[in-house]
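Before a colleague's protein record goes any further, I have to sign it off. Alongside the sequence sits a line of tokens, each denoting a local backbone shape. I want your independent view on whether this chain really folds as the tokens say. Where you disagree with what is written, explain briefly why. This is what I was given:
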Amino acid sequence: MEADARLQQMLQGYDTFSSDFEQFSVTDNGQRTEATNGTLVLRKPNLFRWTSEEPFPQVIVNDGTYLWIYDPDLMQVTRKPFDANGNSAPALILNGQIDRLGEDFTITLVNESGSEALFELLPRNEQSTFTRIRLLFVEEQIGQLMLEDSLGQRTTIQFHNQQQNPTLGADLFSFDVPDGADLIVDPGA
């Protein structure tokens, strides 16, 4: 089975997904940044809520029309139009949109042994935001997502307590601007 078909198979097994996560970055000189913890819930296609807790609290919600970014420390909300065609690579991955992903990246199955599978995605275009993406699956569930940018910074997201197809209320994918928060409307490109 080709790598893109195998990745598609692993990502199509759910319509909803939830997970706890730990996110950290490593700079090009090997320095690790402080870890951020939080939760992710998503409903295909394109609905998600990403909630980061300490040390950098943030809520990002895609309601299918707008992308909302709320920074509680700043009491600031940014709203920008959601563009399904302009999805970022991580969003395409979590939504299982491998056909779209395959247009922008060469997908390789680096290693598959036992209950683990490691995929690597390399950009077809030098203008890509990411120079390399690695996905580690454990028992056919995404366990880790590593993104490397053109400046050599690697961001790693480790998933824990993953659930495929949990029941998720529609309210998770809506956002109301908190009282007292400033709203910045980004009209998009």
In short: The first strand starts at residue 16 and ends at 26. The chain has a mean pLDDT of 89.
